[in-house]
Specification:
This protein is of the alpha/beta class. Helix content is about 40%, strand content about 15%. The chain has four helices and seven strands. α3 crosses α4. The longest helix has 23 residues. The relative contact order is 0.16.
Length: about 140
């Protein structure tokens, strides 16, 4: 009879070990939202261009292709560095937009020849309108 009692006690004393993953899931989803919000901000802040100042600066077209030239002379199309043929990459970028507008964001210390070279490549690639971005004087 004492054996029977021991069995009942050992069965009642078993501990159920479970891991609650609800807090882990909550943290993972919060981190996902944070990364989704901050990634575009990080990508836009990557290209440093000091635009020349102008009193007549205007806001560019919404569906335009942004071409940036940094002080070091690196050229970017929509925040991606151009390696190789500029005209071919501009044609490719223009094929995705109905408006064939290119906005040139050139650092104010970039030589005039480099700006003209990119404007010429933009025209050859099929751009219908070329805009030079400036910073508005307040």
């Amino acid at each position: 009879m004492s054996r029977r009692c021991n069995r009942v006690n050992s069965a009642e004393e078993k501990v159920m070990a479970e891991i609650n993953i609800t807090p882990l899931t909550d943290i993972a989803l919060v981190l996902l939202v944070i990364f989704m919000v901050t990634t575009p901000l990080i990508l836009q802040a990557g290209i440093k261009v000091k635009l020349p100042k102008s009193t007549t600066a205007e806001i560019g077209a919404e569906k335009s292709i942004n071409v940036s030239i940094t002080a070091e002379g690196k050229v970017y199309i929509n925040n991606r560095e151009i390696i190789g043929d500029v005209i071919a990459q501009l044609k490719n970028a223009l094929s995705y937009t109905s408006e064939k507008v290119i906005v040139l964001n050139a650092d104010k210390i970039v030589p005039h020849g480099k700006v003209v070279e990119i404007l010429d490549a933009a025209k050859k690639s099929g751009a219908l309108k070329l805009v030079i971005a400036t910073e508005k004087i307040k």
